[in-house]
Amino acid sequence: MRILGIQTGHDSNICLLEDGKIITHLEIERVSRVKQDRIWKKNNLGTYINMIFKKCGVKWDDIDKIALIGAVHGRKNPRLVSEFSFIPESRHKDIHIVDHHVAHAAASFYFSPYEKSSIFSLDGGGNDGGGLLAYGNGNSIKVDKVLGTDFPGDGPVGQIWHKSMLLFSDTPNGPIGTEGVLMGASSYGTPIESLSKVLYHYFSNMTEAWKNFQPNILRLLNEKESQIWHEGKTFDPNNEQDYFDYCASLQLATEKYLEQKCKEIKALHPHENKVCITGGVLLNCLAVGRIMPKYFDKIFAGPAITDGGLGMGAALYYYHHILNNPRSLPADYMSPYLGFEREEGDILKAIQSCGVKITYEKINSIESVVGHIIDGKIVALYQGRSEVGRRALGNRSILADPRSKEMKKNINKKVKHRHWYRPFAPSILEEHVGEVFCDEYDSPYMSIALKIRDEWVDKVPAVTHNNQTARLQTVSEKINPHYHKLISAFYQKTGVPLLLNTSFNDNEPIVETPEDALACFLNTEIDYLYIGDFLVKKS
User: Fold this and answer.
1) Sequence-distant (≥ 6) Cβ neighbours of residue 312 within 8 angstroms
2) For residues 276 and 108, is the Cβ–Cβ distance under 8 A?
3) Measured between alpha carbons, how far is 158 from 183 in angstroms, rounded to an integer?
4) What's domain 2-102+309-322's architecture?
5) Rounded distance between C-alpha atoms, residue 478 and residue 466, angstroms
6) Taking CA 350 as the corner, what is the angle to CA 346 and CA 354, rounded to the nearest 5 degrees?
C-alpha cells in the first residue's frame, strides 16, 4: 500500500509511504530554496508531487490513499481547495484529513523505538489548537487533552516566541532568523522573574496574546510603574544585554510551562517513564534538557518534529492508526536520511561546471579530510541521502575542530553570517556520551541539550554553550557508518570523540543538490568541500 502524506502550509512537505516504510520525504524549501516555503500560496503542489513520482518511479494509479493536513482552525480552507485541484478528481474519495497535532504526534511516536509512550506536542498552533497530550500504544494514538483549541486558554506557546522574535526584527539584534535564536541568546542573559510571570500569563491567554501581545508587552516594559523590567530602567530593544535578558525571561517562562505539562502528563500516565516530544516549541533543547529528565527516563524526538514533518506524520497515522496496520518496531533508531540521493555522475558534472574556480581530486580515504579538520580548516560534507528536519546530521553538514576557541566566532562570521553568540552542536560517537556529558541520553536527531563534564569544557570550547551545555547528536555506526567512521578517525588522532557540526547553508535552507553545495562553498569561506568521493578546494 502506498500513501502520500501532504502538508501545504509553511514548511510544506510531501512524504511517500509504502507498506509502512518511508520511501522518501521531500521538504519543499530544500528544492525551492525559500525558507519555510508554502506550496498552497503558489499553487504548485502538482510540481512537487510529480518530482517525487519521477524520482520514485510511481504514478497516480500506484497511490492508494492521500493524507492531507487540515487547514488552520477557524479559518476558511483555501489550502484544501488548492490541494484538491492538483489531485485527480477520481482520487478525491481517497483523501483523508489529518489534524495538525495528531500528525505531529505520529511523526515522533511512529518514528520511535517505543512500543508504548506518552506523547507531548507543542507549537504555534494548528487546526486542532496549540498542542496535545496523548498516549501511543502499538499502532494507535489516543489523544488525552488538546491544548488551546481555537486559541483560548492553554497554549500555543510558540506564538509568544514568534511575536517576541518580531520585537527585535528592526534592531541591531535582528533580523534573527527563527525563534530558536532567542533560545541561544537566553544563556547570555539574566532572567527577570516579574517579566517571566507576565510572559507565562500570555501562554494561558492566547486570545489576548494573538491580538495585542506586541503593543501590550512593549507598553509594560517601558512603564516603570509596571515593575516587570529592571527596577528604575526602561527596556531598550536595541541594547544587546536587554535583548539577552528578555530572552532569558522568556526561556524561564517556557521551562516553567514545560514543567507544568510534564506533571500533567505524569498524572495521566503515572507508570510511563518514556515520552515522545514533537512540535516546534520542543525544539527548545535547553528546556527539554533541564526539565524533562526530572520526569522521564527516556525522551525521544523524531528528526522532523516541526511542521516540516507533518506529511510524514499524516501518512504514518493513516497507515497505522486508521487502517490498523501493526508497527514493525526497529531494533535501533530509524534512519533520518530520507531525502534524495545524487549519483556520482551528477556530482562530477556539477563540479566540472565550476571550471577554474575550483580544483578537485577523487579520494579513497577520509584521512585527508580529518587532517584538514585537525589543521583548523572548515570542511563541508555532502554525502548520500539528505537528512530530514531542521538539524544537519552528517550528510549535509559543515564540520570543524571543536577544540578551537576561535572556531565558533570564525564560522559565524565567515560562513553563517550571523550573530556571534549563535552556538554549534557536537556530533559525538554514541559509545562515548557518558565520557563527555554528565548524563547519558540517546540523541540521534540532536534533540536535547546536556551538561558537559567540567573536565571537558575547556577541551571543546567551540561546541560548549555559555551555560556549559551542548545540543548533542549521538552518532551510531549502524545508522550512519560513514559519519561514524569520520568521527572515529578524528578521535583516534586527537582523543576527542566528537566534531563540531552545523548545517550546510548560509541564511538559506540546507543544501539539497550538488549545485547548492558548490554555490554555498564558493560564496562563503568554507575551506574544503567533501562531496561524494571528491575533495574540492578553491583555486
Assistant:
1) 5, 13, 15, 17, 22, 25, 107, 111, 304, 388
2) yes
3) 12
4) 2-Layer Sandwich (3.30)
5) 32
6) 165
- The rounded distance, in Å, linking the Cα atoms of 300 and 447 is 8
- pLDDT band at 74, cuts 50/70/90? very low
Q: Roughly how many angstroms between the first and final C-alpha of the chain, as a whole number?
A: 50
DSSP 8-state class, residue 10 = S
Q: Which of 263, 317, 291 is nearest to 136 (CA)?
A: 317
Longest dimension (CA), the chain: 69
Edge-to-edge strand list for the sheet holding 140-147:
140-147, 129-137, 116-126, 274-278, 298-301
| Ramachandran sector of residue 504 (left: φ over 0; alpha: ψ -120 to 50; beta: rest) | beta
Could you read off the pLDDT of 188-204 as tens digits, one per residue?
A: 999 999 999 999 988 87
Question: Domain boundaries in the chain?
Answer: 2-102+309-322, 114-299, 344-538
Indicate whether 11 pLDDT > 50. yes
> Cell for 146?
488538546
Report pLDDT digits (tens) over 472-496: 999 999 999 999 999 999 999 999 9
pLDDT digits (tens, 9 = 90+) for 52-72: 999 999 999 999 999 999 865
- Strands 65-69, 396-400: parallel, antiparallel or unpaired by DSSP? unpaired
- For residue 386, which amino acid is it? S
Domains 2-102+309-322 and 344-538 alike in fold:
no
Q: How do 469-475 and 534-538 pair as beta strands?
A: unpaired
User: What residue type is assigned to position 450 of the chain?
Assistant: L
- CA 508 – CA 464 distance, rounded (Å): 24
Q: What is the pTM of this model?
A: 0.94
Domain 344-538: CATH class, spelled out: alpha beta
Q: What is the pLDDT of residues 136-155, one digit of tens each?
A: 999 999 999 988 754 444 55
Rounded CA gap, 184 and 214, in Å? 21
Q: Can you tell me whether residue 187 is helix, strand or coil?
A: coil
pLDDT at 328: 85
Q: At what angle do helices 344-352 and 514-522 cross, to 10 degrees?
A: 30
* Best CA proximity match to 499, nearest among 440, 429, 426, 432: 426
Please give the grid coordinates belonging to residue 191: 532572567
Quickly list DSSP for 257-289: HHHHHHHHHHHHSTT--EEEEESGGGG-HHHHH
The CATH classification number of 114-299 equals: 3.30.420.40
d(CA 240, CA 170): 13
Question: How far apart are alpha carbons 374 and 404 in whole angstroms?
Answer: 10
DSSP type of residue 459: T
Pairing outcome for strands 448-451 and 425-429: unpaired
Is the Cβ–Cβ distance between 310 and 39 less than 8 Å?
Answer: no
